[in-house]
Write a structure and sequence with these properties.
Adenylosuccinate Synthetase, Chain A, domain 3, four-stranded mixed beta sheet, globular, ten-stranded mixed beta sheet, binds inosinic acid, Adenylosuccinate Synthetase, subunit A, domain 2, Adenylosuccinate Synthetase, Chain A, domain 1
Length: 429
């Protein structure tokens, strides 16, 4: 049987690397784009011409005619937010609803998960995680505790009602324990879910089957990760992480295919580093460079609008992301944001208590002691946003990018130099 190709796109820092832009560029050559984890905590900003779209749940491939867009079983699916987003997209892409599919095995994320998310964050006080407030942690908690409600559970309306009423009771007990002051009204919950039930069931698919059949038919599939490697619940800076496996291992798992189906894993990295929310960021810029790069790079969260913390490129982080994802290629984004800086720094390794750390530590206490060691490279004065080929880039940018390759051990396949679809360089392999 002929086999198509399957590529995974993963964030390889702390999220917001510009995966949406890369997926959007690659979607030109792809038949199916599928999300495999996370939910509406993601926020992909995609620019097409002068239009800007912020997609939270629908894969960016939707903006390309004819592409099928799927949400896998690993996603925590917020149906109300999803239909809102879909209705907005339909103004621009009338056939969008015919091209999306949602796994029957995906867990529903309902508004009570958001109430719990906020109540849990408030109860953590100074130890808060800085979540997006989209209910992600509580929805995955329900899944793992085997008390979640899945899309397929809506098929039988009476059974769905029983599950929803049972959930409301349980959530109300939890909210009370957390002193939330909020309460779920079971009648309203049932009424609301029933309003979207049939529309959602019409989109229900078995994502593993759809993808496997497409691959067997020689089609090309892209599995789109949300967030980044350092936010992975297993591999990230725990507990300052999201509640899913953002790394490539989660991709097959989150759509229902095996790891042997995956051909390539492309890691998306910014030419510098950002993070939103609490938790360590070893190469964080001091002021005023922090504010300068934040402004220049438009570093404000697409989902929450929060200012992102910015820092130098951390090769320790990306080397680690290469390891846990098995990266085969890199896409470096926002190179243009570094234009005009007299010199650039790259963290090559850390030191802690007299020891050299080449690997990103799993222990946050050790990470807190770690001091990044930098290498300094010359910057460039030229504007890179007009470059469309490797040769258009200045020599200092070549040297910077080649150094990133050497330090991370992963070849660069794409360089993005602006928000627009055409601002991309395909690097010869
Ligand atoms: P949650 O996913 O909303 O539970 O948030 C957990 C952590 O992941 C917080 O630090 C968030 O800021 C971060 N996070 C979640 N989604 C994204 C994203 O799409 N980009 C960047 N950070 C994110």
């Amino acid at each position: 049987m002929s086999k198509g190709s399957c590529v995974v796109i993963v964030g390889s820092q702390w999220g917001d690397e510009g995966k949406g832009k890369i997926v959007d560029v690659l979607a030109e050559e792809i038949d199916i784009v599928a999300r495999y984890q996370g939910g509406a905590n993601a926020g992909h900003t995609v620019h097409v011409g002068s239009d800007e779209f912020i997609l939270h749940q629908i894969p960016s491939g939707i903006l390309h005619p004819g592409r099928t867009c799927l949400l896998g079983n690993g996603v925590v699916f917020d149906p109300f937010q999803f239909f809102e987003e879909l209705d907005e997209i339909k103004a621009r892409v009338p056939d969008a609803e015919q091209r999306v599919g949602v796994s029957g095995r995906a867990h529903l994320l309902l508004y009570y998960h958001k109430l719990l998310d906020r109540a849990s964050e408030a109860s953590r006080g100074a130890g808060k995680i800085g979540t997006t407030g989209r209910g992600i942690g509580p929805a995955y908690e329900d899944k793992v505790a085997r008390q979640g409600i899945r899309v397929a559970d809506l098929r039988d309306a009476a059974r769905a009602e029983t599950l929803l009423r049972r959930a409301a009771e349980r959530i109300n007990r939890k909210l009370e324990m957390l002193d939330s002051g909020e309460k779920v009204d079971p009648d309203l919950l049932v009424r609301d879910v029933m309003t979207i039930r049939e529309r959602l069931l019409a989109l229900m698919v078995d994502t593993g089957r759809v993808i496997q059949d497409a691959l067997n038919a020689g089609k090309r599939v892209l599995l789109e990760g949300a967030q980044g490697a350092l936010l992975d619940v297993d591999h990230g800076t725990y507990p300052y992480v999201t509640s899913s496996n953002t790394t490539a291992g989660g991709a097959g798992l989150g759509v229902g295919i095996g790891p042997t189906m995956i051909d390539d894993v492309v890691g998306v990295v910014k030419a510098y580093t950002t993070r939103v929310g609490e938790g360590p960021l070893p190469t964080e810029f001091p002021s005023p460079l922090q504010e300068e790069i934040r402004e220049k790079g438009g570093e404000f969260g697409a989902t929450t609008g929060r200012p992102r913390r910015c820092g130098w490129f951390d090769a320790v982080v990306v080397r680690y992301a290469a390891l846990v994802n098995g990266l085969t290629g890199l896409a470096v984004t926002k190179l243009d944001v570094l234009d005009g800086l007299p010199e650039l720094q790259i963290a090559t390794h850390y030191t802690a208590g007299g020891d050299t750390l080449d690997d990103f530590p799993g222990d946050l206490a050790l990470l807190a002691e770690a001091v990044p060691q930098y290498e300094t490279l010359p910057g460039w004065t030229e504007t890179t946003s007009t470059a469309r080929t490797w040769d258009d880039l200045p020599a200092a940018a070549h040297a910077y990018l080649r150094r990133l390759e050497a330090l991370t051990g992963v070849p660069i396949w794409y360089v993005s130099v602006g928000t627009r679809r055409d601002q991309i360089i395909h690097v010869a392999r």
